[in-house]
Predict the structure.
Amino acid sequence: MNQNVYLQILESKKAGRPLFTVLIDPDKVDAKSLEHLIGLGLEAKVDCFFVGGSLVISNHLDACIQQIKAACNIPVILFPGSPSQVSKYADALLYLSLISGRNPELLIGQHVISAPFVKKSGLEIMPTGYMVIDGGAPTTVSYISNAAPIPSNKNEIAMCTAMAGEMLGMKLIYMDAGSGAQTPITEAMISAVASSINIPLIVGGGITDPEKAYLNCKAGANMIVIGNAIEKDPSLIKEMSAAIHASGKIIAE
């Protein structure tokens, strides 16, 4: 199995260079807007594209990924909200286990159903411990999962959850406050989690300005995911990218 994408993430972590990922929801783009987004991503030197969403009710997931792959060499990683959100055209798949919740379907149940299809897809599979953090507003993932998020001020719960995920064999930890979060994950929580695990840490949800992205990286995030803010203002890509990549220079020093 090809492990190129995960190795790139590991190498970036080792080098102290945080990665910038743009999250694309296939339901919210058409061919023209996606072309514009890809162009901005190339100009800003985006590191990865995540493609997926909590629902994805449209049927053009494959077409969306194929358009990205035809236009650039930026890795495309699936961020699935359900077992149906799998496309052989992507480079890799975040195989998400909702370790912050207690819903057995999203801990392992859906994985049992999807495993044969995922294995045949040829995708690079990246087992990911997915942790939903309270962002001050109800999120689609919390509603669908029927699982309460980790309270935003309970750093120790987040830390212990991430540690458990790593010891269970997860290759990545993804802390997410959810799309349109009113309050993003605090630097204190990011720092507590980052200092307690050795695997890469992904952070997303409610990051609306370059300063917040920069501070999250300084706190220990190895990859920053931004979706909703860029959906509203695609021109933010350049500033976000500059802030995230500049933080790596500071960390290296």
The chain has a mean pLDDT of 92. The two ends are 36 Å apart (CA to CA). The CA atoms of residues 31 and 67 lie 8 Å apart. The chain has one domain: 19-252.
